[in-house]
Amino acid sequence: MGDEPSLTRWTFQDFKMFYDAKFGGKREQEKEGAGRDQARACNGNSSNGSTHGTEHVMNTSGMAIYEQFRNQEKRSSGQLNGDSSNRTSERPQRPLLPLLESAETRALAESLCRDIIRGSPDVKWESIKGLENAKRLLKEAVVMPIKYPKYFTGLLSPWKGILLFGPPGTGKTMLAKAVATECKTTFFNISASSVVSKWRGDSEKLVKVLFELARHNAPSTIFLDEIDAIISQRGEGRSEHEASRRLKTELLIQMDGLTRTDELVFVLAATNLPWELDAAMLRRLEKRILVPLPEPEARRTMFEELLPSVAGEEMPYDLLVERTEGYSGSDIRLVCKEAAMQPLRRLMIQLEGKQEIVPEDELPKVGPVTPEDLEIALKNTRPSAHLHTHRYEKFNADYGSQILQ
Question: Model confidence over 290-346: pLDDT tens digits?
Fold first, then answer.
């Protein structure tokens, strides 16, 4: 008994016999069905009247796209009565993926397709408070060339690279989402994890395939968030890996190719550290827009929207605007959230002091926010983006794009 093999250990012959016994009959039926279909396709007088002896289905490179619509065509082929002009209208006008060189490149393209925002981000220009100068420059650089391409030709060809820089929390990502909502373009939301691979050579291929996808689905926008993590300054004194240098070089080459074509492909980049970017990338990002800290009017609008006044209790908006100098939009939201938590904390103390559990429909309402709550919120929330304001202003004076009033 000890010399006999275990029941779970199968030899190749045992597995082949089991496979043939279980699936052999199905394979013979499929072969017979395929033979009948081939013989029927070779005949000129097909039963459905829509297949001709000289008609080919599709080449192997487009087979994946064709298979998505094969069932739909089979259902409608009985109603066409040999008219192939209507059938072509049911096929996709332009597949999502272009014709690529190899299966490896196609796999890279499919991984990048996950970063395409399918639906609209639903961020309107009106939902962004303040930043009028930045919004006008973005409309001029991206929105208008798509709406009125007749005017943007020759010397007035649209800018292909736009850089949004400024302190953190000022609304750079919201501006990019507003561009995607307004233009209705194919929007690629790319970060460092999208184009950096552990396999040698894949990072450069990902960048190349990304721009091929953008050209294929034009008009399109490539949004590179935190671009300083992808293409920082190059130099001999810096400890830079070879793979990182190859990635930066490929990105610069692809960016340079955009400026020499008429295709509507825009690269929209955002960073908090514009002085860390390479000089060659700054040259390709032709439009450089400062997204500054909110001005007093914008801060007042934010407070009025987040903390509306209730009947008999007027919020001290003027005092809030004065006390929040140097706060970003994200900081102002945190101040309002901290102020709204104060009445809830008082209510939680009362509820926790009771021994019995209060039913949900009998829970008391949260009281309004008082000026004392705002004072506590201002003390507990400090600004996070005011330390390098002078550096952003200096960079904007040296490299930025402005509109003269």
Answer: 999 999 999 999 999 998 887 767 888 999 999 999 899 999 999 999 999 998 998
276 and 302 in a single domain? The answer is no
| H or E element, residue 301 | helix 296-306
Number of H helices, E strands in the chain: 17, 6
Residue 329's domain spans which residues?
296-384
Distance of CA 11 to the CA centre of its chain: 50
Tokens representing 153 are 């030709």
Distance CA 271, CA 226 (A): 5
Per the CB < 8 A criterion, the answer to whether 175 and 291 are in contact is yes
Residues 39 and 160 grouped into a single domain: no
Spatial distance between the Cα atoms of 324 and 328, rounded to a whole number of angstroms: 9
Please state the pTM of the whole predicted model: 0.69
Q: Are residues 267 and 122 in the same domain?
A: yes
Q: Which among 292, 295, 303 has a CA at the least distance from the CA of 332?
A: 303
Q: What is the DSSP letter of 151?
A: T
Residues 6+ apart with CB under 8 A from 301: 129, 130
Distance CA 187, CA 38 (A): 43
Instruction: Give bridge partners of residue 163 from the DSSP assignment.
Output: 269, 288
User: What is the tens place of the pLDDT at every residue in 329-341?
Assistant: 999 999 999 999 9
